[in-house]
Design goal:
The longest helix has 23 residues. The protein has one domain: Winged helix-like DNA-binding domain superfamily/Winged helix DNA-binding domain (Arc Repressor Mutant, subunit A), CATH 1.10.10. 58% of the residues lie in helices and 8% in strands. It has a three-stranded antiparallel beta sheet with strand order 1-3-2. It is mostly helical. α1 crosses α5 and α2 packs across α5. The chain starts with 8 loop residues before the first helix and ends in a 16-residue tail after the last helix. It contains six helices and three strands; from the N terminus they run ααβααββαα. β2 and β3 form a beta hairpin.
Length: 153
Amino acid sequence: MTMMTRDCIFFQLAKAHQTASRFWKDRLAPLRLTTAQATVLAFLNEEDGITSAELGKRLQLDSATLTGLINRLEAAGLVARRKDREDRRAVRVALTPPGRGLGKQVVDLTTRAHHEFLSSLGGTQPAQITVLLERVSRVSPGVAAGKNKERPT
């Protein structure tokens, strides 16, 4: 059975990612942040002062990528690192006062952009696509080999 490339799930996901990323970058442009930087600030706005390991887990980023992001945000005066009082090996990442203000702006902008983007779908589709994307993101790489169907959340 032959499939047209445009019907392939991987092509469709890539195109959807491009569209959403372009939309999000355009909305973030006035704040002069990358999408990754904005996401770090948003997560820290939700729970400030978490360990870099916990932040990396929540962001689903490897240590090297997260370190680069934190370095740039720290150089911009938006976050600060500090040693954990109980575990000297752990480093906590906290918003500075300017970072807290910008983090709040990011969260407000994210909320507006989220609703604007999904409202273009209409009806019940925003809720449906959110559920489907959550499920897709939990699909294990072993699926093709007939192993695990979904990773636990």
